[in-house]
Each structure stands twice: as structure tokens, then as C-alpha cells.
Specification:
By secondary structure, the chain is an all-alpha fold. It has 13 helices and two strands, in the order H-H-E-H-H-H-H-H-H-H-H-H-H-E-H. The model has no long low-confidence stretch (mean pLDDT 93). The structure holds zinc ion (2 copies). One zinc ion (ZN) binds next to helix 2 and helix 4.
């Protein structure tokens, strides 16, 4: 979800509240098995779009792909209101200013801002965001999604309602969106708190093994801040990184290539050091 438009301050809270109430109402009124199946499928596609698409591809360019599959990744992320141009710009600002007052989301700026409010307004103008994503603004199809980021997700939400009624809309779409948003916010929040820091990066990033499993690898966040340009977040065999395994399968199928690995000199460099920039 994104918007850098000036919004009334109460609107994010109202939207978040409305989104949370829909699945609860649907469960009380009675949901169907198919609603939960749609929820699972949309959540998995969204998570893949956000983690592999927005984060590892568009923000960090940690592997290469065709222009067609690039747009497929864009569409998957768009299920949960993702916008590659905006996300890449915003996320690169996160790596540049991690855990300072200029960060776009840090737990040290407060729970509400980090978890919810920064989804709607991260404190930067559209021009400042676009300036960090010049490599993506040259693609007309990505800029079209940037300007109309709401069309695809609203169409999917409408389709769930037309096919399965209110319960499929509330469980199938709203709940899958909520899960995707909470998973992303949990990484933004919990992976910049705590003490599980293998690498002495200049920020406060941490590895969180629970989130590492729940978010398909995105929770190995201290690893990621140590070397953001790699296609993998789990650096060692015991760090489950489902998204990396999926990328390996996609590379065998020829859909992606040139996955950037972690050089041993980086992997075993535990000395205090400046971050390797994205
Ligand atoms: Zn981070
Ligand atoms: Zn990153």
C-alpha cells in the first residue's frame, strides 16, 4: 500500500480499523472453506511479490530477469498495493538512513509510525522518492502502476466480492492484505530491535529467527543490512530462506538469472564496518 498524498491525519487509522473489522465480521457471519483457500493463495502471491519482487529485485536488483517477468513481479506485489518505483525509492532511503531520524520506518520513531503510519506517509515527497529510483522510472509500465497503484488491487478485491460475496472479499482479500502488511511491518519493527546481531552494522538491525521462518526468509535482517545486494537473506544453511530457494528454482527454469551470492569475505566479516550500500 502506498500514498505520498497529503492525507488527513485520521484517515490511516480509519482505513486500518476498517480493514481489521472486515474479517472479524465475516467470521461472525460465517465464512466458507473457499474463502480461506483464496486468502492463502492471495497471501502467498502477495508475500512473493513483496519479498522477492519489491525487496530483492526492484529495491536491491539482487538478480536479473526479463522485462516480462519483471512486470509479473510487479503485478504480484500490486495485489497488496505494492508499487515498485515507490517501494524501491523508499526502501533505499531506509538503508541509507536506518534507525536515524531520517529513516522511513524505524521502531525508534515509535510503534504507530513504524508499523502503520509509515505505510501511508513515510515523510518524504514523491520527488525525493523518485530520485532514489531513477533506474526504474524509465519503464513506462512501472510508472503506470506508480500512478495507478490502486487499480489492480481494487479490481482483485472487487472480483473476490463478485465471485464469493462478502465473506470472500473480507477473508479472501482483506485478511490476505492484512497478513501481508503485518508481516512486512513486523520485519520493519522487530528486526530493528533486540540483540541478535551477527554483523556489527551501523544500524540496529537484528536477525529474528521466528520472523525468518514466518516471512519466508525476510527476517534475517541483520544479514541483509550487512550485504543488501545479495539474493539471499539466510547466509548459512540453517537459516531458512524460502524465497531464495524459490529464486533458485526460478533460475533453473530460466525465468531469472545472475543471482547475486554472498562472497565469503563478506559472509565471515564480523568486524565493525560501514554498511555495504544497496
Ligand atoms: Zn531494515
Ligand atoms: Zn533491503
Amino acid at each position: 500500500m502506498r500514498t505520498s498524498m497529503a492525507l488527513p491525519r485520521a484517515l490511516p487509522a480509519l482505513l486500518i480499523l476498517l480493514l481489521h473489522t472486515q474479517p472479524i465480521i465475516a467470521v461472525v457471519r460465517g465464512a466458507h472453506v473457499i474463502d480461506w483457500i483464496v486468502c492463502t493463495v492471495l497471501y502467498l502471491l502477495s508475500a512473493f511479490g513483496l519479498g522477492v519482487g519489491l525487496h530483492r529485485y526492484f529495491a536491491h536488483r539482487s538478480f536479473e530477469t526479463s522485462r516480462a517477468f519483471q512486470f509479473v513481479l510487479c503485478l504480484f506485489s500490486s495485489i497488496a498495493f505494492g508499487d515498485p518505483v515507490w517501494f524501491a525509492g523508499k526502501h533505499r532511503l531506509h538503508h541509507k538512513h536506518s534507525d536515524t531520524n531520517l529513516d522511513v520506518h524505524s521502531p525508534h520513531q515509535g510503534f504507530w509510525f513504524c508499523w502503520f503510519a509509515s505505510i501511508f506517509d513515510e515523510g518524504y515527497s514523491d520527488e525525493e522518492i523518485l530520485a532514489k529510483a531513477r533506474d526504474l522510472t524509465r519503464y513506462p509500465e512501472l510508472m503506470w502502476i506508480h500512478r495507478h497503484y490502486y487499480i489492480f488491487p481494487v479490481a482483485i478485491a472487487a472480483a473476490t466480492y463478485l465471485v464469493g460475496g462478502y465473506s470472500m472479499f473480507a477473508i479472501g482479500y482483506c485478511l490476505s492484505l492484512l497478513l501481508a502488511l503485518h508481516a512486512a511491518s513486523a520485519v520493519n519493527y522487530y528486526c530493528h530491535k533486540g540483540k541478535n546481531r551477527r554483523y556489527d552494522t551501523q544500524d540496529r538491525s537484528t536477525n529474528n529467527s521466528v520472523l525468518g521462518v514466518l516471512t519466508f526468509g525476510e527476517g534475517w535482517h541483520n544479514n541483509h543490512h550487512h550485504y543488501p545486494g545479495t539474493a539471499r537473506a539466510g547466509f548459512f544453511w540453517w537459516e531458512l530462506d524460502v524465497f531464495y530457494y524459490v529464486l533458485r528454482i526460478l533460475s533453473v527454469l530460466g525465468l531469472v538469472w545472475n543471482l547475486r551470492e554472498v562472497p565469503n569475505r563478506v559472509k565471515y566479516d564480523f568486524a565493525p564496518s560501514p554498511n555495504v550500500k544497496a
